[in-house]
């Protein structure tokens, strides 16, 4: 009988939350916004601590910054997914970038919110995500609708081949030889990809491609 009453009280418990942000004030702000609906289990200050806390505490929801020391929020999410952990993730970020939102959702996140519009946005997102939905900051949603969404589907398979060889450190001349293209065509592909991904140098192109999971 006693066991049954314990179970009943556990069933009535509020969903557990882990917050991950290397800025304590941000984490406490998130806690304040969500304390009506969730029990805070832990605050993690980097991605590695987040992975460990999720595996130990099995929260119902994680709200994490994308950029954190030691291991980014995105890498933490990918590691947990690979380990078979499917906790719901909502990312908080400073980056008003549709491409990053797409990458986050592809990696398995349920929400993507800008820090400067957290507040009500975050509460709405948490509720929507807990019912199985996904939520992206409305400010970004407008850019989705206007077709400015940077999506890897905008890159052709030939461009992706070029991109991977750029990522391996090959120069345009070497890439041209390997793919049977002219140097001018390789350069044109690189230029187009920089436009699509919104970057201005080969180094940035490689970094952005890594962030989006296009290099493997």
Structural description of this entry:
The radius of gyration is 20 Å and the shape is elongated. About 6% of the residues have low confidence. It has 11 helices and 6 strands. It starts with a helix and ends in a 5-residue tail after the last helix. The chain has a 6-stranded parallel sheet, sandwiched between helices. The longest helix has 15 residues. Helices cover 54% and strands 13% of the residues. It folds into 2 domains: 144 residues, 3-Layer(aba) Sandwich (Rossmann fold), CATH 3.40.50.2300; 60 residues, Winged helix-like DNA-binding domain superfamily/Winged helix DNA-binding domain (Arc Repressor Mutant, subunit A). With 216 residues, it is α/β, with parallel strands linked by helices.
In short:
With 216 residues, the chain is of the alpha/beta class.
Which terms would index this structure?
216 residues; alpha/beta; Rossmann fold; Arc Repressor Mutant, subunit A; six-stranded parallel β-sheet; 11 helices; 6 strands; 54% helix
Order of strands in the sheet with most strands: 2-1-3-4-5-6
Percent of residues in β-strands? 5-15%
Characterize the largest beta sheet: strand count, sense, and whether it forms a barrel: 6 strands, parallel
Q: Return the CATH class of the largest domain.
A: Alpha Beta
Instruction: Give helix % range.
Output: 40-55%
Second CATH tier, the architecture of the largest domain: 3-Layer(aba) Sandwich
Could you name the CATH homologous superfamily of the largest domain? Response regulator
End-to-end separation in angstroms reads 55 Å
Secondary structure tally, helices: 11
- Rg calculated over all Cα atoms: 20 Å
Instruction: Label the structural class.
Output: alpha/beta
Low-confidence stretches: 4-11, 145-150
Count of all domains: 2
- The total beta strand count reads 6
Task: List the helices and strands in order.
Answer: HEHEHEHEHEHEHHHHH
Shape: elongated
The name of the CATH topology of the largest domain is Rossmann fold
Average pLDDT, all residues: 84
